[in-house]
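Propose amino acids for all 196 sites.
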């Protein structure tokens, strides 16, 4: 007689959230190419066919994770930025927010690097995301510099680079302090003069 393993039945929305959470953690640890559908299924108490019922495919699972992260990012970004209005204040708010979510930063850093390969399922997603980020920074800088596009690239590169160093050695690198030092160099000639 074969014993059937009991799997907890969760409402569809709760199950999907569980799948996304487990997948997010696994991709942050292993990257997309190291992600096993069996490991995701095991982490959720499902069979692989049960997992596929919810996400369709491995590519579909990745896109579901990215969509979920985008929705969460919009909410947390609004909270993080608050009343910040200058480019420097907004960048500092972004860095402070990221310093409090290393697993999400790791997820994006790993996927961003992997997706440089044109055949990666998130290649187009990250290309569009980068373009949107650079355009957003350039808009904030348009009245501060004759080269807002160039400065936007430098800001994004500095943020990305500091985050990678911080993820590799969080005990020794203070992301927020390092960003503030870098921002001092980047924004030194861009900040409007203060009264006095």
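Proposal:
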């Amino acid at each position: 007689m074969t014993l059937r393993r009991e799997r907890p039945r969760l409402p569809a929305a709760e199950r999907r959230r569980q799948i996304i959470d487990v997948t997010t953690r696994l991709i942050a640890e292993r990257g997309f190419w190291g992600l096993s559908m069996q490991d995701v299924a095991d982490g959720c108490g499902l069979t692989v066919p049960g997992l596929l019922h919810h996400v369709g495919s491995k590519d579909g699972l990745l896109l579901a994770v990215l969509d979920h992260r985008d929705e969460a990012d919009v909410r947390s970004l609004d909270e993080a930025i608050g009343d910040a209005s200058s480019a420097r204040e907004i960048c500092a708010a972004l860095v402070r927010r990221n310093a409090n979510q290393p697993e999400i930063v790791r997820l994006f850093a790993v996927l961003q690097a992997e997706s440089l390969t044109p055949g990666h399922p998130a290649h187009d997603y990250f290309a569009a995301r980068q373009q949107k980020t650079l355009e957003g920074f350039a808009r904030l800088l348009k009245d501060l510099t004759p080269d807002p596009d160039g400065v936007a690239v430098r800001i994004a590169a500095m943020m990305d680079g500091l985050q990678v160093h911080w993820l590799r050695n969080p005990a020794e690198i203070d992301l927020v302090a390092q960003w503030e030092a870098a921002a001092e160099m980047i924004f030194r000639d861009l900040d409007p003069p203060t009264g006095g």
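The domain at 11-80 is CATH 1.10.357.10 (Tetracycline Repressor; domain 2). The chain has two domains: 11-80, 82-189.
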